[in-house]
Design the sequence.
């Protein structure tokens, strides 16, 4: 399987027996990674190893809970509830999958990915909090203050968990695509039955750098085991964020989904998230978005559960991440939603297509995910195509991106005005779809 958990000094929380047990659990998982191949002996070793891991985990939970009670740790009940979720729900469901599939390679991969992600995430968040290595809780804040405080909390968590020096790029992230993105949705309910929706977006290379770094993964893509580990580390991350904000009265996770970019983008079209933060971590972009309870909508992706997790994760990665291959990227800039969708439908089969409805949105898109070609509407209000082109040419990193103007005017004066700005070329909107597609194909072959 080619993966190993790497113990690091920052995993030590300063309580010797807890640290030693964490090292033991890491060691057991590493032996399971080594013996996970589907030979008969390997299967038997995995069966015994998984039983051994479970016994140690249960013993560790009991000892840790006794310690927390002895020091009157304020977060004891929350911490024990997380333990209960792992020992009473997560582990039994993983064991059932192993038995049902006769310890298949996929089921073992699922078990190891989930346990590795949960163990590392829990150690770096909840366990660190036992000894006071945690972020201060924020009291009652105004909406603007809460957004700023949440940004600081996330920056601190990224530093604590992954040694990343992140910064807030935008406090009003509007769902623009960046790199090869993974779109993850978590639904929580309050004790009163209301729902909260958390949307996390990871640039693929960020997961490879962080989760892959902890697991010593040599792959340059997100595989199924890495994705399962990332899911459970992400859940621990969200738990730690929400615990620091009393106003976020979220009690229990009820649903998780992996979304396509289109599903994710539709949420932003229909609603304004209460919190929408974009971070540059230095290892890739990361977005953290919160949608209010009354804005919840159904149909935002297949719900992941114990029975379908491996199938859904594998299908998602194949279709939405690894399936993107080496498609060239086109940015469409037009103030008309109808025009954007028509052009997208024409091009998305052969290209990765991003959309922007204004010059400012176009610059954000180019910054986050540099396109190979920009199709730019010339006749836009407020900031027209010529002004957008000037902004693009003014940035040294963007100046060489080819730009083609889209225009509805074919008279000689209008065409001369467009060409004087020295774009790569121009396309008439009145051309037929086949002609437009052929012209774009030819430009990208140049």
Sequence:
């Amino acid at each position: 399987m080619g993966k190993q958990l790497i113990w690091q000094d920052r995993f030590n929380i300063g309580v010797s027996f807890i640290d030693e047990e964490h090292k033991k659990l890491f060691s057991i998982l590493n032996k399971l990674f080594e013996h996970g191949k589907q030979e008969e002996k390997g299967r038997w070793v995995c069966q015994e190893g998984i039983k051994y891991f479970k016994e140690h985990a249960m013993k560790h939970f009991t000892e840790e809970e006794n310690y927390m009670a002895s020091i009157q740790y304020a977060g004891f009940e929350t911490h024990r509830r997380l333990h209960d979720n792992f020992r009473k729900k997560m582990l039994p469901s993983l064991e059932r999958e192993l038995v049902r599939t006769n310890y298949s390679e996929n089921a073992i991969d699922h078990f190891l990915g989930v346990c590795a992600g949960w163990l590392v995430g829990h150690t770096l968040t909840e366990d660190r909090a036992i000894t006071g290595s945690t972020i201060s809780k924020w009291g009652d804040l105004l909406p603007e203050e809460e957004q700023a405080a949440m940004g600081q909390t996330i920056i601190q968590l990224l530093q604590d968990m992954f040694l990343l020096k992140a910064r807030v790029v935008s406090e009003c992230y509007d769902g623009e695509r960046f790199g090869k993105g993974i779109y993850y949705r978590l639904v929580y309910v309050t004790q009163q039955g209301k729902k909260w929706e958390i949307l996390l977006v990871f640039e693929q290379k960020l997961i490879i750098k962080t989760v892959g770094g902890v697991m010593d993964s040599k792959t340059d893509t997100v595989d199924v085991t890495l994705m399962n580990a990332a899911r459970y580390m992400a859940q621990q991350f969200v738990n730690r964020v929400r615990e620091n904000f009393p106003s976020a009265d979220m009690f229990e996770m009820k649903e998780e989904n992996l979304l396509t970019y289109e599903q994710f983008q539709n949420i932003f079209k229909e609603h304004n998230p209460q919190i929408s933060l974009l971070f540059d971590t230095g290892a890739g972009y990361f977005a953290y978005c919160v949608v209010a309870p009354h804005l919840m909508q159904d149909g935002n992706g297949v719900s992941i559960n114990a029975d379908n997790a491996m199938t859904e994760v594998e299908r998602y990665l194949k279709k939405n991440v690894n399936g993107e291959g080496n498609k060239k990227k086109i940015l469409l800039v037009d103030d008309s939603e109808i025009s954007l969708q028509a052009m997208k439908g024409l091009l998305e089969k052969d290209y990765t297509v991003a959309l922007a409805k204004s010059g400012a949105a176009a610059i954000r898109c180019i910054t986050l995910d540099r396109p190979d070609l920009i199709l730019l509407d010339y006749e836009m209000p407020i900031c027209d195509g010529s002004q957008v082109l000037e902004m693009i040419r003014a940035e040294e990193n963007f100046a060489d991106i080819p730009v083609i103007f889209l225009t509805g005017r074919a008279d000689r004066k209008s065409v001369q005005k467009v060409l004087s700005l020295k774009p790569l070329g121009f396309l008439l909107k009145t051309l037929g779809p086949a002609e437009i597609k052929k012209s774009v194909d030819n430009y990208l072959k140049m």
User: Anything to note?
Assistant: The CA atoms of residues 33 and 117 lie 14 Å apart.
